[in-house]
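Usage example:
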Amino acid sequence: HSVLTQPPSVSAAPGQRVTISCSGSSSNIGNNYVSWYQQLPGTAPKLLIYENSQRPSGIPDRFSGSKSGTSATLGIAGLQTGDEAVYYCGTWDTSLSAVVFGGGTRLTVL
Amino acid sequence: QVQLVQSGPEVKKPGASVRISCKASGYTFTAYSTAWVRQAPGQGLEWMGWISAYNGNTKTAQNLQDRFTMTTDTSTSTAYMELRSLRSDDTAVYYCARDGATVATAHYDYWGQGTLVTVSS
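Running the assembly step on the lines above writes:
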């Protein structure tokens, strides 16, 4: 079982907005930055969000991140079929002295 | 442009070792740490560790400490990982990634293409 908890799947229609949650504890999300990754089938993960809410250059502003307490949320607006992928949250866990990832959430754009 | 190019797929027998390379280009190699992350078939991401290309300091996941080693060759801007005493559950795609942060976090901004390691008798 993953240290960070994500829903296994979410779905929404094209053009809609979806959110993906990532729940942790004070030893990880509560006191460290959260990153989010998108993994398309057969490819390496791609950084979407870092430091809770920052987008790397080239990532559209349809993708947003937020953190509150020991939970973080990835938001994707204006859904496109190309957004179908598995999304992972990740952060440092101070107690484990290790990077931890969520189990991943599969997004289906209906 | 930043690129991380990994070595090719490997097939190993249980008990053997595997060494994977990750050649970096497009940035100052010694200014960033390199992380290693693996993904078993159909599974999620598992962090393995990181190495500072500046001073060689490493941090390794506790469950791998006895079998996992990371090194760098700054003359060729290449990071290496070695996993020993391979078991069937080490079958996975292994990724290297550039650590874009200066603090402990999961800020991996560029990734290699992945190297499939298959452990089978």
